[in-house]
Amino acid sequence: MRVYLDNNATTIVDPHVFEEMEPFFVQKYGNPNSLHSFASETHKPLKDAMEKIYAGIHAPREDSVVVTSCATESNNWVLKSIYFQYILTGRKNHIIVSEVEHPSVIATAKFIESQGCRVTYLPINHEGLIDAKSVRDNITDKTALVSVMMANNETGGIFPVQEIGEICKEYNVPFHTDAVQAIGKIPVDVQSFNVDYLTFSAHKFHGPKGVGGLYIKKGKELLPLLHGGSQMGGYRSGTLNVAGIVGMGKAMEQAVDALDYEMTDIKEMRDRFEDELLKIEDTFVVTPREKRTPNTILISFRGIEGEAMLWDLNCAGIGASTGSACASEDLESNPVMEAIGADADLAHTAIRFSLSRYTTQEELDYTLEVVKKAVKRLREISSSYAYAPDGHDSKL
């Protein structure tokens, strides 16, 4: 059996999405900006897709949704535009991000920090969550942007974006949220969240790779990241990815339609699976269930390197992930585990299982048996587990 439990990394393209996209590769392939019938064939499908995207995030028509290549581009665009508009001109000198943002936010923040911007990295608490009060404590009249994700890609932890949005509105500071891990898992409403910019990517909710978007509230204009054309209302250059936009629109529509299933059936499967995993001795899950997206588990097995567990899972046909990474001879621990203050041994043991609406109970039952066997095998050869103190207490 092959089991895919890495849906926070990417998802299968829904067959209905693929079916909707297919004509725009070899049949209706015109450039939308051309002035002939080949181009006009794409206009209504593009309009319909954009309507679905607007509806999916409850964006009013006076606001803008700009199609990008991915969420990484969108995140870079927001932070770099703020830098050029406010930091470089000397109007402001400060931005706020959480310490567990996606690398496309963290790396961009560090880049503009190297250019003279002051960056505050908000800490997470022992549950892996941000306290909205920390935004209020750090915001100043020199703050040009607050960027805090809606849901964490590692833990599934849902951050208090509505409260943060209200704080930013009170201080008249633009607020950006990376909603990549939220769409299709929890309701997303740009109006109730008081966000000025919101990022998403189609391949996280059963759409195609290589297409994403950025919501921009009216009056919160950004400088274009890409120059050389007048696509998307002048916000972004480059020929429109017609097939990708059509696919993203269909995927957004289906993600919203499937929300009830995600928040009930998928959550119930996740919880049962987690309950069984936690019966294994010395296992720890980060972030309480009620504060997580319904599909995600970040779990640590004391005494077992994450990469070793992934090897056993992969050999059994199971796809999962770990926040650790082997770079040359260096082994990096999971950044979320480090941020919550887990001890050094535990910080290297985190495994993420992320379900989708295509996950079955049979797949989870099979995975559980494989995990149990892997834990037994790997702990028998683990010197760190063998010599751990009785009780194996952790800082979690």
In short:
With about 400 residues, the protein is α/β, with parallel strands linked by helices. It is built from 15 helices and 14 strands.
Observed structural traits:
single chain; alpha/beta; Aspartate Aminotransferase, domain 2; 2 domains; seven-stranded mixed beta sheet; three-stranded antiparallel beta sheet; 14 strands; globular; disordered C terminus
Examine the coordinates and then state which fold CATH places here, giving the name of the CATH topology of the largest domain: Aspartate Aminotransferase, domain 2
Shape: globular
Q: Helix/strand/pairing class, anyone?
A: alpha/beta
What CATH architecture of the largest domain do you see?
3-Layer(aba) Sandwich
Q: Please, what is the oligomeric state?
A: single chain
Using only C-alpha atoms, the radius of gyration works out to 22 Å
Strand order of the largest sheet: 2-8-7-6-5-3-4
Show unreliable segments.
324-330, 389-396
Largest sheet: 7 strands, mixed
Count of individual domains: 2
CATH superfamily of the largest domain, by name, is: Type I PLP-dependent aspartate aminotransferase-like (Major domain)
In DSSP terms (H or I, runs of 4 or more residues), the helix count works out at: 15
Q: Give the ordered list of helices and strands.
A: EHHHHEHEHEHEHEEEHHEEHEEEHHEHH
